[in-house]
TrEMBL record:
Parts forming coiled coils: none
Claim: ATP-binding is one of the keywords in the record: no
GO molecular function list: bis(5'-nucleosyl)-tetraphosphatase (symmetrical) activity; metal ion binding; nucleotide binding
CDD domains reported for this sequence: HDc (cd00077)
Enzyme Commission number(s) from the entry: 3.6.1.41
InterPro entries per the UniProt record, alphabetical: Diverse_Catalytic_Enzymes (IPR051094), HD/PDEase_dom (IPR003607), HD_domain (IPR006674), YqeK (IPR005249)
Family annotation (PANTHER family): BIS(5'-NUCLEOSYL)-TETRAPHOSPHATASE, SYMMETRICAL, SLR1885 PROTEIN
Catalytic reaction(s) noted: P(1),P(4)-bis(5'-adenosyl) tetraphosphate + H2O = 2 ADP + 2 H(+)
Top enzyme category: hydrolase
Lineage, opening ranks: Bacteria, Bacillati, Bacillota, Bacilli, Lactobacillales
Keywords noted in UniProt: Hydrolase, Iron, Metal-binding, Nucleotide-binding
Name of this protein: bis(5'-nucleosyl)-tetraphosphatase (symmetrical)
Amino acid sequence: SGSMAELEAQVAHQLSKKRFEHCLRVRDYAQKLASQNQIDSEQAAVAGLVHDYAKERSDAEFLAVIGAKHLDPDLVNWGNPVWHGIVGAEIIKDELGITDPLILQAVRDHTTGAGANMSKLSQIIFMADYLESGRDFPGVQTARTITDEDLGQGVRFQIIHTLAYLAKNERPIYPKSLTTYNYWVTQ
Ligand code: DGI
Ligand code: FE
Ligand code: FE
Ligand code: FE
């Protein structure tokens, strides 16, 4: 076990073709951002490839893992968008044997960020998920340019726009997303 090809096959087996291809594009974009930011390309590749590994699991499975691993009890009040990274990291650890704490934390942080506590690898996966070559939203090219200039300014751009989107659509905002906004908005 342990080769990139084997990991790729394991991820492919758990996801729709469409979501697997997104994971391959996130891996590629994460490697590009890693080289621009002097971060280990292999860690970025693995984290990017596996970041959505648990996205297609049932709510029942996430709830079981929250209980079995004694994760924050408030997590039961959220849903797949919040669970697939934070709870998904536990599933990745158990099923894929990934133990690198930086990789697991980057998976946990990939949807909501983590305020002041984001490693460069977490920032890279957060941005690669948003900017991978298949993404096409108004402003994506601006966001890519900003992120090429300054990774942290990319994180700032994304969290500002995501929070505005969630509020406009009357979606609940996970506290960690707010913490990320409050930290990065002043950067
Ligand atoms: O898994 P992906 O679709 O590739 O992307 P993602 O993990 O960044 O985001 C998944 C979804 O989570 C996306 O529709 C936006 C949503 N999201 C991000 N932050 C929050 C959130 N949803 C809620 N309810 N609250 C949040 O704070
Ligand atoms: Fe995701
Ligand atoms: Fe994201
Ligand atoms: Fe993703």
